[in-house]
Specification:
There is one protein chain. The chain is an alpha+beta fold. The protein folds into 3 domains: 204 residues, no CATH class; 71 residues, no CATH class; 173 residues, Restriction Endonuclease, CATH 3.40.91. Helix content is 47%, strand content 13%. The protein is built from 21 helices and 15 strands. It is globular, with a radius of gyration of 26 Å.
C-alpha cells in the first residue's frame, strides 16, 4: 500500500510533489546529494548547508582526536524506516550509518588515507573512497542529516494534500548546525499502521548516486594510468601486430587492484583527477526521474492528461466552480511542468496574510523554458492566478497579479482564464505592465493550456514550451 492509497488522496505519483512511497517496504530510489547542491532555492541552500556542516564537523572531530564524539554523531545516522527509500525487498529496514556500522565507518574515516590527505570534502566522496559505504548508506545518511527540513516539507505537503497529522510523534535526531549537535522533539507527522512517514521531494531522488566508485576508477583514473605506462614503456605495454602499443585496463587492474583501497591509493598520486571528476559531476548533474520512469518503477499508468483536458473544457465557468478550476489547473501544471516547477502551494499568503496567491511553484528548472527564464529574469517562484470567469479579464486582474511580485519572490507569473475575446488587447496590457517595471505575466486560456499539454506530450517532456517562449518574446519587445 502506497502513502497516497492509505490516506485516500485520489492522486497517483504524477500528481504528487513527493515520492509516493510504499508503506511496507522501500522504493528503489535514493536521495542524491549532488542533486541537492544544484538546487537554486533558499530551501535548497539550506539542505546543502546541512550536509556540508555535518560532514565537516565529523571530520574536524576526527582530526582533533575527539573520536568518541565523532562516533556518537555518526551513530545518530541510524537505520530508520520512515523514509522508505532504498534496496529493501521486504519490510523497510534502512541502511544508514547506524549503531552497528558507526564504529566501522569511523574506523574507515580515521584509518583511510583519504581523510589524512584531505581528499574527503563531502559526504558523497565517501561513496568513492571509503570501503563498505555504498549508495544505500549515503542516501540514508542524507535523509537523516536532512530530517529537520524534510519533516517541515512533510508537514507542508500533508496540509496541501489534506493528510491528517498526528501530534506528539517523536522526531528522531535532528541536526542543529548552529550548535553542532543532534536534538530531538515531539511534533506532528503522518502516522500509518506501519509507523510514521517522512516524505521526500521526487525531484531529488535518482536510481543511483551521481558519484560511483567503479565509474570514477575505470573512466577517470585508469585512462591516465594507461597514458603514464605508455610513456614510461612499462612492462604492461603490449605491442599489437599493427605495431600499435597499448596498455589495457585489465592489465592495470590485475597489477593494482580495483577496490576502494586502490581507488584511494591512485587518487592520492593524482589528486587533480578527483577535482576534475567533482567538477564534471557539478557541471552535468543527473536529471530527475521522468514520469515514465516513475510509472515503470511503481507499476502505475502514465497520467491521463487528455482526461484532464476534457474535464477542463467541460467545467462550468463562474464562482461555483472556481475551486475545482484551481485544483484542475494545479493538476495539469504539476504534470506538464514537472520537473521544472515543484513544491506547489495553493492560496499562499503574503503581506502578513493581506494578499493570497492562487498557486505558487518553486522554479528548480535545469533545462528548457523556465531554466532560460531564470537565467535572465528574477523568477525563483512562479505565480499562477486562476480566473474561472465567464467575462473578459482586464486591468484589475493584471494589477492583482502584479501586486504579488517582488524582487525576492520573483516577478514572473501566469494569468490563467477560460477564454480571451481580445487577446491582442490583453497582451498589450501585459506589455504595458512589463514596461512599467511591475513584472512579467503570461496569459493562458483553455486553448493555450491544451496546446501546452500536447506540446509537452509530443516533445517527450523536453520542457521547451515554444508557446510560452513565443508569448514571452512578444511581451518583452
Amino acid at each position: 500500500m502506497k502513502f497516497s492509497e492509505f490516506f485516500r488522496l485520489n492522486r497517483t505519483q504524477p500528481f504528487l510533489d513527493f515520492v509516493d512511497v510504499p508503506l511496507d517496504t522501500d522504493i528503489n530510489v535514493f536521495l542524491e546529494p549532488v542533486a541537492i547542491k544544484k538546487l537554486e532555492s533558499p530551501w535548497g541552500n539550506e539542505l546543502a548547508s546541512l550536509l556540508q556542516t555535518f560532514f565537516e564537523t565529523v571530520l574536524r572531530l576526527i582530526n582533533k582526536g575527539e573520536h568518541h564524539k565523532a562516533q556518537v554523531y555518526l551513530s545518530s545516522l541510524n537505520e530508520r524506516n520512515e523514509f522508505h527509500l532504498g534496496y529493501s525487498s521486504g519490510r523497510s529496514r534502512g541502511h544508514g550509518f547506524g549503531k552497528e556500522s558507526a564504529k566501522s565507518v569511523w574506523g574507515a574515516l580515521t584509518k583511510s588515507n583519504a581523510s589524512v590527505t584531505g581528499l574527503l570534502r563531502d559526504l558523497e566522496d565517501a561513496a568513492l573512497l571509503i570501503p563498505g559505504i555504498g549508495t544505500d548508506m549515503i542516501s540514508d545518511a542524507v535523509c537523516n542529516i536532512l530530517r529537520g527540513p524534510l519533516i517541515k516539507y512533510t508537514q507542508d505537503m500533508c496540509i496541501y494534500y489534506g493528510v491528517p497529522l498526528t501530534p506528539g510523534v517523536a522526531s528522531g535526531p535532528i541536526w542543529n548546525p548552529g550548535k553542532e549537535e543532534w536534538e530531538e522533539t515531539l511534533l506532528q507527522l503522518p502516522m500509518t499502521t506501519f509507523g510514521k512517514v517522512i516524505l521526500v521531494p521526487k525531484i531529488l531522488v535518482r536510481h543511483r548516486l551521481c558519484f560511483q566508485s567503479d565509474e570514477y576508477y575505470r573512466h577517470y583514473i585508469l585512462p591516465e594510468m594507461q597514458e603514464e605506462h605508455l610513456h614510461a614503456h612499462s612492462s604492461l605495454v603490449e605491442v599489437l601486430n599493427s605495431g600499435e602499443k597499448r596498455v589495457t585496463k585489465k592489465a592495470l587492474i590485475g597489477k593494482y587492484g580495483s577496490d576502494k583501497l586502490a581507488v584511494v591509493r591512485e587518487t592520492i598520486a593524482r589528486p587533480h583527477i578527483l577535482d576534475e571528476y567533482r567538477q564534471e559531476k557539478a557541471n552535468s548533474p543527473s536529471i530527475p526521474l521522468t514520469q515514465e520512469q516513475f510509472s515503470e518503477l511503481e507499476g502505475i499508468e502514465l497520467p491521463d492528461v487528455e482526461g484532464l483536458l476534457a474535464t477542463l473544457t467541460q467545467l462550468p465557468v463562474g464562482n461555483d466552480s472556481a475551486s475545482k478550476y484551481e485544483d484542475l489547473i494545479e493538476k495539469i501544471f504539476s504534470v506538464i511542468f514537472y520537473p521544472s516547477l515543484c513544491n506547489p502551494k495553493k492560496q499562499d499568503k503574503i503581506h502578513n496574510g493581506r494578499k493570497r496567491i492562487d498557486i505558487t511553484y518553486t522554479n528548480e528548472a535545469k533545462s528548457g523554458f523556465f531554466y532560460w527564464l531564470a537565467l535572465h529574469y528574477p523568477c525563483p517562484l512562479i505565480f499562477i492566478e486562476c480566473k474561472n470567469y465567464g467575462k473578459e479579464v482586464g486591468n484589475p486582474e493584471i494589477d492583482q497579479l502584479a501586486g504579488r511580485f517582488s524582487p525576492s519572490r520573483g516577478k514572473v507569473g501566469m494569468l490563467v482564464c477560460r477564454s480571451i475575446e481580445n487577446k491582442k488587447l490583453l497582451h498589450q496590457r501585459c506589455i504595458d505592465t512589463a514596461k512599467d517595471g511591475r513584472g512579467y505575466m503570461l496569459v493562458l486560456d483553455d486553448q493555450d493550456i491544451i496546446a501546452l499539454a500536447r506540446e509537452n506530450q509530443n516533445s517527450e517532456g523536453s520542457q521547451l514550451f515554444k508557446l510560452l517562449h513565443n508569448q514571452w518574446e512578444q511581451l518583452i519587445k
